Amino acid sequence: MLFFAFFPPPCGNPLCALTRTRRPAPNLDSLNRGGNLGRVMDYSNRTYLVSAAPADVRASFYRKTYGTAALAFAAWAVLLGGLFESGAAVPIIKLMFAAKFSWLLVLGVFWVATHFGQRFAFGETRATQYLGLGIHIAAYAVLFVPLIGVVLVQSGGNPDDAFAEILLPAGVSTAALFAALTATVFMTKTDFSFLRTAVIIGSFLALGAIVLFTLFGVTVGVWFAIAMTLLMSAAILWQTHQLKNSCDTSQHIGAATIIFAAFMTLLWYVIQIFLTRRD
After folding, report:
1. Could you write out the DSSP letters of every residue in the chain?
2. Does 172 fall in a domain?
3. What is the extent of the structural domain holding 64?
4. Residue 20: pLDDT band with limits 50, 70, 90
5. How far apart are CA 59 and CA 75, in angstroms?
6. Does the pLDDT value for residue 259 go beyond 60?
7. Mean of pLDDT values over 263-269
8. Distance from the first to the final alpha carbon of the chain
9. Closest CA to 167 of 86, 97, 236, 77
10. How many CA atoms lie within 13 A of 248 on its CB side?
11. Which member of 26, 122, 133, 275 has the lowest number of beta carbons within 10 Å of its beta carbon?
12. Is 4 part of any domain?
């Protein structure tokens, strides 16, 4: 089974598609020429580029963004577990592989869902933004059903073994890699925008490969999963750089949606690597 998340958005990076007029961070030194501001300035309701925001506003944005992404992952895990506990996973898997090319249809539906979900996540109202995030959570939960099913089969149908031997180490490895990539962006001054072209070209090549593999029934091995992990790592560096330098401080839900999607795609291929190692 294969999966590909098409990261380049239809109108460029959604983090750049901002509708509000951004204001630079106020220069308090210039305002305080006389040694006394005279009154307390309140900028809490203003909107800034993240990179230009005051330190407290920027820190609040990061807390909200990564906190929301963490809650989204927890909701995804609960929903995915519920699909297996309720028995709904079996008909979902049967439907996904009812015909030879059903998987391509699944990917198409997934792409459409996340495409609109991403647009909603950067919408004007909080309700619309949370709807977009919710669409992503549901889409990824359904998409992961067949992969988790394979993990269970490889573990002899024992959920405890599946969790301890594959899912837990894969999750920890993904989290560690994601944290390292994120830290690289925030702790260095490197401009990772140069990765955009490589990510887009690599994405098209990967999509073409997945279509061909599905059409001809080719089973890919660990090397494809490793290559996709490297591609996703480059995409995370680029997207995190965009979040840091192009995102509006009012768009933490949209930014969290991007982070959640990137993490889940990386997790998909890391799980495949652990599956291949087990074989």
Report:
1. -------S-BTB-GGG---SPP-PPP-HHHHTTTS--SS----TT---BGGGS-HHHHHHHHHHHHHHHHHHHHHHHHHHHHHHHTTTHHHHHHHHTSSTTHHHHHHHHHHHHHHHHHHHHTSSSHHHHHHHHHHHHHHHHHHHHHHHHHHHHHTTT-HHHHIIIIIHHHHHHHHHHHHHHHHHHHHS---GGGHHHHHHHHHHHHHHHHHHHHHHTPPP-HHHHHHHHHHHHHHHHHHHHHHHHH-BTT-HHHHHHHHHHHHHHHHHHHHHHHHHHH-
2. no
3. 53-156+178-278
4. very low
5. 24
6. yes
7. 96
8. 15
9. 77
10. 21
11. 26
12. no
Least confident of 9-13, 55-59, 136-140, 144-148: 9-13
pLDDT score of 77 more than 50: yes
- SS3 label, residue 10: strand
Higher pLDDT, 170 or 278: 170
The count of domains in the chain is 1
Cα angle for residues 164, 165, 168 (degrees, 5° grid): 55
Which structure tokens are listed for 152?
């269970």
Percent of the chain with pLDDT over 90: 62
Residue 193 DSSP symbol:
G
Per the CB < 8 A criterion, the answer to whether 188 and 244 are in contact is no
Q: Is residue 34 part of a domain?
A: no
pLDDT tens readout for residues 96-147: 988 878 889 999 999 999 999 999 999 999 999 999 999 999 999 999 999 9
CB 181 within 8 A of CB 259: no
Query: What pTM does this model have?
Result: 0.82
- What is the overall mean pLDDT for the chain? 83
